[in-house]
ATP-dependent DNA helicase RecG (Mesorhizobium australicum), 702 residues
Amino acid sequence: MRPSILDPLFVPITSLAGVGPKVGALIEKVVAADLGDRAARAGDLLFVLPHTVIDRRNRPGIALAAEGAIVTLELRIDRHQPPPRGNRSVPYRVYAHDDTGEIGLTFFHAHAAYLEKAMPVGEHVVVSGRMEWFNGRPTMVHPDHIALASEAENLPLVEPVYPLTAGLSGKVLRRAIGQALGRLPELPEWQDDAFMRRESFAPFGDALTRVHYPADPIDVAVEGAAWRRLAYDELLAGQVSLALVRAKVRRLSGRPLVGDGRIVEKLRAALPYSLTPSQEFALAEINADLADPERMLRLLQGDVGSGKTVVALLAMARAVEAGGQAALMAPTEILARQHLATIAPLAAKVGLRIAILTGREKGRERAETLAGLASGEIDIVVGTHALFQETVSFHDLVLAVIDEQHRFGVHQRLAITAKGDAPDMLVMTATPIPRTLVLTAFGDMDVSKLTEKPAGRQPIRTVTLPLERLDELVGRMLDAVADGQKIYWICPLVEESEEIKLMSAEDRFASLKPLFGDRIGLVHGRMKGVEKDEAMRAFKQGETRILIATTVIEVGVDVPDATIMVIEHAERFGLAQLHQLRGRVGRGDKPSSCVLLYKDPLGETAKRRLSVMRETEDGFLIAEEDLKLRGEGELLGTRQSGTPGFQVARIEVHADLLEAARDDARLILSRDPELQSDRGEALRLLLYLFGRDEAVRLLRAG
């Protein structure tokens, strides 16, 4: 049960004064990109932090105010000049002066009664806003703040600026945040006293207040003392949460998996190539984990084409040798069937019994697969989310392999765990997107890396091209197809959308069909499984030479002689996705290229993404850049972008705090695994504050 001291923070935001359903819906957009099934709470507002400030401490006087500067002026009001009656195109002007000169305050579509009340003639007022000069005359258009001099102490001299959404004003959001802050109770300290003194950290409530009511721009700076205090709290909450998840997984004792080597050695002999040094090293680490009585929870990171699948197959063969079953789970049916096509011929050579289970398998075929899994007749099953279903049971699942691990959350990892008696787990990713990087950095998993690509892989030349030069690109494609090359063309949408004006896969297919005739194919996620299979078969066998597709082919698709990748509206894709798509070419012995088609004008983030893609093919470097551009994502859920995974911490700034939080969490849990001490009780409050409900549930579940 949630501690009652936090109840004031767990009320809906619509219970705050001035926050009705309409305003509440707008605030929810700012609080989080996705709150799941719950409504935003008052406590969520505490961590909607300002991204900058407006410094209104500059009081130069009218004559000395610089063009474009934010200034605060103390003025005496001289006269009002309303626009002619009925002519709203003429602004309302208020003229005032100080000891250095005269200024005109300009208001468009103004309410005269309000302005006359706020700035009576003859009164001294304080105004703040951006200074502008026209023909040598000073003016201020729509001052941000107006107050009588006698009430000027209420003027925020350092005003925080928050992220907003259309229809929501900063003033309304600040008022709601202030109410939430007023509901924050005095909480017991969860930080170590010596650490607090060493870091010069203020108490939690004081740090939050300083960020929301800054006295100086440093109070809102990511590297400032107040922000660092909150960042450490969030990092500690994350570290404790992940440690508890890991302890829960580890607590389910596994069993040693040591085979006699007969299947593994046959598999090695059947491979048409030798393993790379990093594959050998990763396999040794995995085998050591399998042989250990403690459960394995290992992440296998390997760039596109580095050979993760064969490492996974050898690990699964080891599990079968030890008398158990293995499952390989993929996020899409296409990828699952690609895995099956890759490993089935090798499995057949060594006597491994293998099957597939996706949403497509029906009737007798599905029933036979389910029966084979339950009886133990099937050694390895490849599948999608269908493996989670209640009707699926295993005779003895001892190893679960999850491919493209960033597509699955902790809950799904725990769900597959429930299919066996504490099976070992190996999760794989080709490009560690930000959330995966952070999971790794936070110690949720042991890590193995594949750092080389198999011999013969060709570098990929990457170029950017504006959509205005599309005709030129199509001309080159005609030449490439005539030369026997194969081309992927990726579109961001399946079909035309009224909301998003982008070229869809179906429209692009229709526009190119007259030029390429039967040599062009189409595949997307809304097609039936049989139709997708046929489109991929035709492309792989060369019956079609151009494949128009959505990101359904992002992972796992292997057509070695495809040499050109065109990604339309590349500015709409994330770095990890661009890298995955590019990895569909360069898989054979011919030079390959990737064309990133973009639409001007590009924002700064999109420019940086495309630049990174031109500069490197290193998936790990790309993932690091993705981390900087997108943020870390949610640690215990499935959200991939920075908000709301980390509202406070910034890994590139707070790396030192991450290390300290990791050590602190390990020390705390080694002394108090159930968080029963006074400090442990305080840490429970911290977990609730930062939304680590999953960790609290694990504590209660023991």
